From TrEMBL, chain A:
The gene is ehuA. It is found in: Cell membrane. It is a peripheral membrane protein. This is Ectoine/hydroxyectoine ABC transporter ATP-binding protein EhuA. PANTHER family: AMINO ACID IMPORT ATP-BINDING PROTEIN, GLUTAMATE_ASPARTATE IMPORT ATP-BINDING PROTEIN GLTL. Residues 28-273 form the ABC transporter domain. Residues 1-26 are annotated as: Disordered. Keywords: Amino-acid transport, ATP-binding, Cell membrane, Membrane, Nucleotide-binding, Transport.
From TrEMBL, chain B:
It is a multi-pass membrane protein. Its main location: membrane. Belongs to the binding-protein-dependent transport system permease family. It comes from Streptomyces bohaiensis. This is Ectoine/hydroxyectoine ABC transporter permease subunit EhuC. The gene is ehuC. It is found in: Cell membrane. The chain crosses the membrane at residues 12-36, 48-71, 77-98, 157-176, 182-203. Residues 14-203 form the ABC transmembrane type-1 domain.
Amino acid sequence: MNTPNDTPAGAAGEAGSTGGRSPGEDLITFTDVTKRFGDNVVLDDLCFGVEANKHVTLIGPSGSGKTTILRLLMTLAKPDEGTIEVDGEYLTHERKNGKLVPAGEAHNRAVRKKIGMVFQQFNLFPNMRVLRNVTEAPVHVLGMEKDEAEERARGLIELVGLTEHLDKYPTQLSGGQQQRVAIARALAMRPKVLLLDEVTSALDPELVAGVLDVLRDIARSTDITMVCVTHEMSFARDISQKVLMFDQGKIVESGSPDKIFNDPDHERTREFLSSVH
Amino acid sequence: MTWGLVSNWILPGLWITVQVALFSALIALVVSFVIGTLRTSELWIVRFLSGAYFEIFRGASALVVIFWFAFAFPLLFGWQLVPLWAGALALGLTYGAYGSEIVRGSLAAVPEAQREAGIALSFTRLQRLRRIEIPQAWPEMVPPFNNLAIELLKGTALVSVIAVADLAFAGNVIRLSTNESAPVYTLLLVIYFVLAFGVTRGMRAVERHAKRGVGRLPERKPLFSRTAAATANGSTTDGGAR
């Protein structure tokens, strides 16, 4: 193992910025959000906010709507009712003549740039080597110079401990290594918000620690707002300032990790926590 | 059959056949990609129009399309195409319709997760196609394109009906002047087979190159690779590649 716990924070420190938003203000706001798949109500009139620079973990049984929240934030799905704001702008809606209307692709793409996502199945581009996986979007979406993008990518790849694998294709890497590349790829876009969707669920047990170490490091050394769905309760306890417990598309309770994990108010939360431990 | 007939008819005919095949393959390739990607559009009108193109040209007889470009096109538009180009255009548009189905199918086989990863990085739809989806679908397209290319090569014999002096046309001329059907057509069979075999070998190389481009084949190594050195310090950081 050579996960760089002691990497200088410089490489990641520049990755996120709050854009002049003072701490304590909500960076993400869900207002009356409902999402259905057929008759199945996945999110039920949901309201919550995430403060800038904070790390929030969503827990709950499978099917409780946690991943749907991340997919809505990434605009991979649209809410059936309600609105979502990120950094003062609506997702999948835009304001025209004072009215909220469904947003065009251009608006969505502009808002999307503020948000990065790491997927359960990594979803690296198999047709690109590791370095190009990380530089492709900065060069072609942000319009960064290729040299600059590569220099930053090298820094990020070093941060996730994969410098010697720069020239490999994703299929030549282990799952844990692929997931660390995926983290570097998301950070390369300098997102304000990083979404982590069960990022260790597809990994062999012995590879989980390396990925979580990298994320702990990023959580500590950057001011990126994180929204995290995980079944790794000790990781959730380590990095998050707030935990939201979901069941059947509603928030059962929320609070500090200490409160939720040690002294939850609801029976449903206790039940769930004892089932995952 | 004399050497004179071969050098006056067969060899020039071979060259014409190769030209028709190359030009129509080029047109077919462009049509395949344009129509094939349009058929994956999110706009129904684009899907409808490209789908209509596909159905019309798939349902049309290549021979009749060739006649149409040679004889109907000049009457309708007052503009006469050189017979070789009329033939190449007709074949390209027809075989391109089949090719569009190959492109559409291969694009549909790219995992949804790749599309989502592209969206998450804010790529536009066109960038996703060009940088993510088409490069990944390409290795899947090559074998069916090989089939189509051979079909097309053999289909070029149809242009002989509009007096393009290709191989088949040359064969006919020699048969009529010498009455030696057996040697003439046997020779033609062999020539078409050799051409088709050449296409297959070429497409194999294309396929290997395509697969290497998505990390699915070992990369070409220098003759004496540094395997020993690589094993010595090649320990992976988290437990080795799976």
